[in-house]
Specification:
Layout (H helix, E strand, L loop, with lengths): L10 E3 L6 E3 L16 H5 L11 E2 L2 E2 L4
Antiparallel strand pairs: 1-2, 3-4
Length: 64
């Protein structure tokens, strides 16, 4: 049996930070339900663009 290369693994984009992340063995059973790339993003899932803090994903925005 030939081993898959890392380039062949499926990829998703984290809904909190917007960074791409690839499939991991521990997510094998529920890959379809995985939305976050890390525990940090799970913790910060309520602090997205709608937080009203003037920042989006760590970038400072200016209000007009």
């Amino acid at each position: 049996m030939k081993k898959k290369s890392k380039m062949d693994l499926p990829e998703k984009v984290c809904i909190v930070c917007g960074r791409p992340f690839t499939w991991r063995k521990k997510w094998e059973r529920d890959w379809d339900r995985v939305k976050y790339c890390s525990k940090k993003c799970i913790k910060n899932k309520g602090q997205t663009e709608s937080s009203g803090s003037g920042t989006i994903s760590g970038l400072q925005t200016t209000k007009v």
